Structures are given as C-alpha cells and as structure tokens.
TrEMBL record, chain A:
The keyword Coiled coil does not apply. One of its GO terms (cellular component) is membrane. The keyword Nucleus does not apply. Signal peptide: none annotated. It is a multi-pass membrane protein. Membrane-anchoring subunit of succinate dehydrogenase (SDH). Part of an enzyme complex containing four subunits: a flavoprotein, an iron-sulfur protein, plus two membrane-anchoring proteins, SdhC and SdhD. It comes from the Bacteria. CDD domains: SQR_TypeC_SdhD_like. This is Succinate dehydrogenase hydrophobic membrane anchor subunit. The gene is sdhD. Keywords: Electron transport, Heme, Iron, Membrane, Metal-binding, Transmembrane, Transmembrane helix, Transport, Tricarboxylic acid cycle.
From TrEMBL, chain B:
The gene is sdhC. Heme binds at residue 83. Belongs to the cytochrome b560 family. This is Succinate dehydrogenase cytochrome b556 subunit. The heme is bound between the two transmembrane subunits. It is a multi-pass membrane protein. Keywords: Heme, Iron, Membrane, Metal-binding, Transmembrane, Transmembrane helix. PROSITE patterns: SDH_CYT_1, SDH_CYT_2.
Length: 131, 130
C-alpha cells in the first residue's frame, strides 16, 4: 500500500513519467556542444592545412584530443535526445516508433564509439614519424 | 452547432499564414535531423579515416573536396549555423524572454540572416586561408 499522496507521486514527473529530465539534458548538452563546436571551428580554421599529417599531429596533443572526445560524447548525446523527440512526434504507429527508437540508440552508440575510439587510437598511437 | 466566426480556428498547418517564427521552428528540426544523420556520419568518417591511415584519409579528402562533397559541406555548415542560432533563440525563450510578437519575429529573422552570413564568412576564411 502506497503511503504517499497521489500529488507527491506525480510532482515533477508529468505525463511522460520522467519529468523534465529529457528536456533539461537536451539544453545542457546543447550548451556544452556549443562551446565545443566553437573550439572545433576555431581549431580547424587555425590549422595550416587539413591534410593527414597535420590533423593526426593535432589530435595527438591532449589539448586537442580531450575536447574532441568531449565533443563526440556531447554531440551524440544531444542528437540522440533530439532525434528521439522528432521520432516520437512524427512516427505515429507504436511498433514503428519503438523500432525507430531502438535503431536510433544503436546507431548513436555505434557512431559515438567509432569516433571516440578513432580519436583514442590517434592520441595514443604515438608519433607516426617515429614508426 | 453555432460557431462564433470571430473566434480563431483550431491550429492546423494549412490554416495559419506562414511567418518567420514558423519557418525557423521547423527549420530547427530539419537542420537538426540533417546534422544528426549526414553531419554525424561525416564527423565519424573524418575521424575514423584519420585513425586508419593516410590512404583512408586520402579517400575521405577526395570525397570531401569533390563537387558533391563541397555541396554537402556548405549545406552542413549552413545547417549547423542555423541550428545553433535557432538553438540560442530557444534557450532565450526557455527563460521566458522574447515572446512579444515583434521581438519574436525579429529574432526569428535574425537567425536566418545570421546563418547565411556565418556560412559565407566560414567558407570565405576556409577558401581564403588555403
């Protein structure tokens, strides 16, 4: 038997039963992604070129590798939250909606993992010129 | 059923006259979806190619600098700037500001002007530096 009142049970939750958590994380990740993309764009424009040697040498530096890793996590988290809302709003059939959200989760994690591992490989790979 | 003709009709896309705020609202979702699919794929490809070696990176660069790659690149950069400016507008509205009709319309228009200018500036710098 529940000892709490109906009001206390629903307070802050809303009809989705998870309250404003999704909404809040979408905002939080948007601010983080904004800061990190300003860094990425500034870095790309400052690099003398975008050829293989320049880009990998740049990503070997912790000052570039760490923000890039943070950018990957933030961006994929944000796009997952955003795309979920788009799917929930426009895919009306329940089975297709569930399937789309499962696919979204798989592709988000797979994409983020591939990008994340790639940066780690470059960062930990050592100087290519030393063999 | 008696209907008072001075009352507004129920909301429907085909009934409302289009305004900049509606355009910017749906563009936020369109650009977001484009960035989340094509943009994310391009980012993953770029990083994975750089991690795989000079040959894979060369394949990426030859695609990215082809005419189709440049069209996609310009599109993605515009989508990024539009989504970013529109996102900042949303954060302002989230704190309860900017809902007056003229203010709302002004900043909706400014995201469109701003994203076009930033896209042009970005490519001017990219092509100017190289």
């Amino acid at each position: 038997m529940r000892m709490e009142t109906p009001l206390s049970r629903v307070r802050g939750l809303g009809s989705a039963r998870s309250g404003a958590h999704h909404w809040w994380l979408e905002r939080l990740t948007s601010i983080a992604a904004f800061v990190l993309f300003v860094w990425l764009i500034a870095s790309i424009l400052r690099l003398p070129s975008l050829d293989y040697g320049t880009v990998t040498a740049w990503l070997r530096d912790p000052i570039a590798a760490v923000p890039m890793l943070l950018l990957i996590v933030t961006t994929f988290w944000h796009l997952k939250l955003g795309m979920q809302v788009v799917i929930e709003d426009y895919v009306h059939e329940e089975g297709m909606k569930l399937f789309s959200i499962v696919l979204l989760n798989f592709f988000t994690i797979a994409g983020a993992a591939l990008a994340f591992f790639s940066v780690l490989k470059i960062a930990f790979g050592g100087d290519a010129s030393n063999g | 059923m008696h209907r008072n003709p001075s009352r507004p009709l129920s909301p429907h896309l085909t009934i409302w006259r289009w305004g900049p705020h509606m355009l910017v609202s749906i563009l936020h979702r369109v650009t977001g979806s484009g960035l989340a699919t094509i943009g994310a794929a391009a980012l993953v490809w770029w990083l994975a190619a750089a991690a795989s070696g000079p040959e894979a990176y060369g394949t990426f660069v030859s695609w990215a600098t082809s005419w189709i790659g440049i069209v996609i690149g310009v599109g993605l950069s515009w989508a990024f700037f539009q989504h970013t400016l529109s996102g900042i507008r949303h954060l302002v509205m989230d704190i309860g500001a900017g809902f007056e009709l003229s203010t709302n319309k002004f900043w909706a228009n400014m995201t469109l002007v701003g994203s076009a200018l930033l896209t042009a500036l970005f490519w001017f710098v990219v092509l100017g530096v190289k």
